[in-house]
Amino acid sequence: MLHDLFSPSVQHTLDLVGIFVFAISGALLAVRKNFDVFGMAVLAEVTALGGGLFRDLIIGAVPPAAFTDLGYFLMPLVATVLVFFLHPEVERTQTAVNVFDAAGLGLFAVTGTTKAYDYGLGLTSSAALGLATAVGGGVLRDVLANEVPSLLRWDRDLYAVPAIVGAAMVVLCIRFEVLNAYTSGTAVLTAFLLRLLAMRYHWRAPRAWNRRSTAREEPEKATAQ
């Protein structure tokens, strides 16, 4: 089904772009945490490939694509080298990085959901793995960097919700047999725009009703989550 939506060459190119941008965010966090070049490479690889690797292991697509396509493995290393030498310049283009990150979020949510369904999972499980594909690498990145995952923090703009919306649109299209390149593109675009709007207007998920917590908001660093 996935190859019916995008040609293999287009799918591969989009994957590499998404992997590169996710890797940039991992390498930048490593710089802020004062990691050495090996730590930068590890965070870049984990951020870029962690979600897809988790999905492939769950659905039994082994060996995972991250280990069968050299481009997938090398692209995070390219991002690491770029950040290693040019991280001040990369920091100054953070807005552009965040835009591409939002696009990658939508793309990976949609393709992750579709691939999970191709391997026999139900609609709900496919959507869950689509979400994991989109955000899993960022969660692993934050854990390795000894931070509370941005995904779970109340003082961060919506990140998982746009991915959930994109994945949900895909499974609804599958359910009503209208999934094609156009509806898939609409799902990607919807998740992308929701993420951009969340960053622009600082939309955040609600916290518990009548909470008693005294936790305060921490200043948000300019980083793609």
Please, could you describe this protein's structure?
- The chain has 225 residues and is an all-alpha fold.
- It has one domain.
- Helices cover 72% and strands 0% of the residues.
- The protein has nine helices and no strands.
- α3 crosses α5 and α8 runs antiparallel to α9.
- The longest helix has 25 residues.
- The two termini are 29 Å apart.
- The model has no long low-confidence stretch (mean pLDDT 90).
What are the main properties of this structure?
225 residues; mainly alpha; 9 helices; 72% helix
Task: Summarize the topology.
Elements: H1 2-5, H2 8-32, H3 37-59, H4 65-68, H5 70-92, H6 94-118, H7 123-144, H8 160-175, H9 181-201
Helix pairs in contact: 2-3, 2-5, 2-6, 3-5, 3-7, 6-7, 6-8, 6-9, 7-8, 8-9
Give a quick account of the main beta sheet: strands, pairing sense, barrel closure: none
The number of distinct structural domains comes to 1
Taking Cα atoms only, what radius of gyration do you get, to the nearest Å?
Answer: 17 Å
The secondary-structure element order is HHHHHHHHH
Number of DSSP-assigned strands:
0
Distance between the termini: 29 Å
Low-confidence stretches: none
Count the DSSP helices.
9
Average pLDDT, to the nearest integer? 90
Q: What is the helix content?
A: over 70%
Q: Report the sheet-strand fraction.
A: under 5%
Classify the secondary structure makeup into a structural class: mainly alpha
CA-based shape:
globular
Membrane topology: Multi-pass membrane protein
Domain Glycine transporter: 13-87, 99-173
Organism: Streptomyces filamentosus
Keywords: Cell membrane, Membrane, Transmembrane, Transmembrane helix
